[in-house]
Q: What sequence folds into this?
């Protein structure tokens, strides 16, 4: 038993996981795979359902789950969760269209989790069992997740139906720390390149007499940014209180955030000699969050557990976009999105033998509701030294007034049945219902007017509409473990996503809209369905060294694509038929005396499987501003190959050094969906980061970090467009940061670990 648990009452979730392991694993393997709660930093049990109160040993999950711990995040001084994913996990690459480190797109197996409205999001993200994809566009705001509150993460691949809507390529399940497992006080101050100054703190503890534990974490982060007008001001706080007795467990958590981030857009190739400059400015977003969640579990008997959660989540976003179609055609666009989400889940688990075989069965239901108000206004502006300054006339160019109600219901079940001591079968399924009601209207300049800057008329768009989507999504998987050091897995799963309110409000070819702010019409779109096959083998070379190899194929029908009509950001959403992502993954990780090594390689072949016509006026092969996309063309923005290498070495018990090597192959630019533009691909890159930690004594530690050690010039995002300053069609790229370094100091008191090497 972990030392922490010897000091206070054993949490019921630990009892549950131990029972699950006893029923689902051969007795000979139980001692080698001691189950631990999901709040622990050591990861041997992963969550396979949305609620985090039940776990399954990794070797009984029919897919290649990847994990990360608080220790991993802390050692690398990861700025945010997106950065950690990009630096470590296989089949992940990131792109950044706006040049702010908190606003990156994370692509996993060719499916995206993005903070940008209008992105085709294909991953679901959960925080302690609460889905945190924003209801308006299913986007993911990485700036709202405090990294120092994370105990561990599970990246669950495939179209797993148990995680509900939008789980096409995978689900990211984030579990937060508890005071029982992360006691003590820690305060860290950091400073260095680009005017970065940051303070983060955390504190946790246990009240044995009242059976309570508590944890709180906070962050204050400011940075000027390495490019002009790319500053970040991030303020986050997270708190959790837990209560438990012999049969029940209850956790109440609160998360707050107030962040302001600026971005500077991509640059045409002709301007990249000065990568710090802004193309146009200002562009900014303000994100505010208030979230309260309550989750609990109760043993009705030794083999029956009921668990549930309820939550309320309010997120407000205010954005300001500089919009210039040419030097003489500019506008400023401001928008406000108020999102209120609430709901809950309830599930029941039955643990016991079935027909003389070990078995665990879980059934659950969920309901998630959102109420969104979206207001956007566009006014005439003058472009002065690349700044869009609102014209004194304050001439309106259009507006949007939109309200959306989204109701999502799910009923799910999963059963893990042991055919014998080596062979397990998992059957799962979920029935989803999605109801989306939209009301409102828009007004916009008549595009037929010869001078749209001074329109003689405005057109009105009708945004009223009601949409409903229903589907049952099944899954089946097998695990064969001939020994504790070798296991095979194979599985099939189906998942779906409903079109988002953003997509439904911009789906009329006759009334194209401007992203990410303007919407004009509300026709219907078909739901997106992904069917995933996956198989592989994993094992251990020794007690401390593990490996895995896997293959997968994810076929998506009714995929949704933004079809540009005028420029890169004016167009409409459309179902474009089938797409496919298939690939290969390899992983190796382990500790060799004082050396730790982790290698993750991913090959992703993401292609269109249906022919369609896309608008791309700046593509060199365009005819009448259109290009023909044919079966086999690769999807832009996805690196075909990625390799992540993490190495650490313990020079002394108090001093270690580490390095991340991140490789990504080239990718096609957006607008080059036919893969034929004369500019070719955005080049691949290899970037090396270094970090080192030194424990002065039990309380004080110092660290240093250097990113992009060899000052590599590279880009992770590209798009075709017209340079408004020259009128030439070019490939635009968002340059990534040059070499930069930071130093920091940490004070700890009463924490579990005392050396830099083991710091959590």
A:
């Amino acid at each position: 038993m972990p030392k922490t648990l010897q000091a206070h009452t054993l949490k019921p979730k630990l009892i549950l996981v131990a029972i699950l392991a006893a029923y689902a694993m051969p007795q000979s393997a139980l001692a080698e795979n001691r189950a631990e709660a999901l709040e622990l930093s050591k990861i041997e049990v992963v969550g396979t359902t949305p609620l985090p109160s039940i776990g399954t040993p990794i070797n009984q999950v029919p897919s290649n789950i990847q994990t990360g711990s608080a220790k991993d995040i802390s050692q690398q001084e990861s700025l945010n969760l997106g950065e950690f994913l990009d630096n470590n996990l296989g089949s992940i690459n990131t792109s950044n269209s706006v040049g702010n480190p908190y606003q990156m797109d994370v692509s996993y197996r060719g499916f995206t989790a993005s903070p940008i409205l209008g992105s085709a999001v294909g991953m679901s993200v959960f925080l302690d069992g609460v889905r945190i994809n924003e209801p308006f566009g299913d986007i993911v705001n990485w700036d709202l997740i405090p990294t120092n509150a994370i105990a561990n993460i599970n990246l669950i691949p495939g179209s797993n139906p148990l995680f509900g809507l939008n789980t096409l390529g995978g689900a990211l399940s984030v579990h937060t720390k508890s005071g029982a497992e992360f006691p003590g006080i820690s305060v860290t101050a950091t400073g260095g390149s680009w005017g970065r100054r940051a303070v983060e703190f955390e504190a946790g503890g246990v009240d044995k007499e009242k059976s309570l534990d508590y944890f709180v974490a906070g962050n204050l982060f400011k940075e000027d940014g390495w490019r002009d007008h790319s500053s970040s001001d991030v303020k986050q706080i997270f708190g959790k209180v837990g209560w438990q007795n012999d049969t029940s467990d209850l956790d109440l958590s609160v998360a707050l955030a107030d962040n302001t981030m600026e971005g500077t857009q991509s640059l045409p190739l002709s301007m990249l000699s000065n990568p710090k400059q802004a193309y146009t400015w200002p562009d900014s977003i303000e994100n505010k969050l208030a979230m309260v969640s309550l989750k609990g579990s109760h043993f009705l008997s030794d083999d029956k557990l009921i668990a549930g959660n309820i939550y309320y989540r309010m997120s407000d976003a205010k954005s300001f976009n500089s919009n210039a179609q040419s030097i003489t055609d500019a506008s400023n666009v401001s928008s406000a999105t108020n999102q209120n989400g609430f709901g809950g889940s309830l599930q029941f688990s039955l643990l016991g033998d079935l027909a003389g075989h070990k078995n665990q069965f879980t059934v659950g239901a969920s309901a998630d509701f959102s109420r969104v108000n979206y207001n956007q206004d566009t006014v005439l502006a003058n472009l002065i030294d690349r700044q869009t300054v609102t014209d004194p006339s304050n001439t309106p160019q259009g507006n949007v007034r939109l309200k959306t109600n989204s109701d999502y219901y799910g009923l799910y079940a999963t059963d893990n049945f042991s055919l014998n001591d080596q062979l397990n079968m998992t059957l799962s399924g979920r029935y989803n219902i999605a109801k989306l009601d939209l009301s409102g209207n828009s007004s916009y300049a008549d595009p037929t007017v010869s001078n749209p800057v001074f329109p003689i008329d405005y057109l009105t768009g009708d945004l009223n509409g009601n949409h409903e989507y229903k589907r049952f999504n099944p899954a089946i998987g097998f695990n064969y473990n001939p020994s504790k050091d070798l296991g095979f897995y194979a599985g099939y799963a189906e998942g779906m996503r409903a079109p988002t309110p953003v997509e439904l409000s911009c789906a009329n070819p006759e009334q194209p809209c401007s992203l990410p702010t303007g919407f004009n019409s509300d026709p219907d779109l078909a739901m997106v369905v992904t069917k995933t096959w996956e198989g592989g083998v994993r094992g251990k070379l020794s007690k401390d060294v593990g490996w895995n190899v896997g293959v997968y194929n994810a076929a998506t029908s009714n995929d949704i694509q933004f079809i540009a009509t005028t420029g890169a950001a004016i167009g409409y959403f459309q179902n474009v038929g089938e797409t496919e992502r298939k690939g290969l993954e390899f992983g190796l990780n382990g500790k060799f005396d004082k050396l730790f090594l982790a290698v993750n390689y991913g090959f992703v072949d993401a292609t269109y499987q249906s022919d369609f016509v896309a608008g791309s006026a700046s593509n060199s092969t365009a005819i009448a501003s259109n290009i023909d996309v044919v079966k086999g063309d690769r999807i832009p923005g996805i690196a075909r190959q990625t390799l992540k290498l993490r190495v650490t070495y313990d020079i002394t018990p108090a001093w270690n050094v580490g390095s991340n090597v991140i490789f990504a192959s080239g990718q096609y630019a957006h607008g080059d969906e036919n893969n034929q533009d004369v500019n070719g691909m955005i080049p691949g890159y290899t970037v090396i980061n270094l970090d080192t930690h030194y424990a002065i004594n039990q309380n004080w530690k110092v660290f240093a970090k250097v990113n992009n050690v060899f000052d590599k010039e590279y880009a992770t995002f590209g798009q075709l467009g017209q340079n408004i300053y020259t009128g030439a069609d070019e490939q635009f790229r968002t340059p990534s940061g040059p070499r930069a370094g930071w130093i920091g100091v940490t004070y700890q008191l009463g924490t579990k670990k005392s050396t830099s090497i083991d710091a959590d």
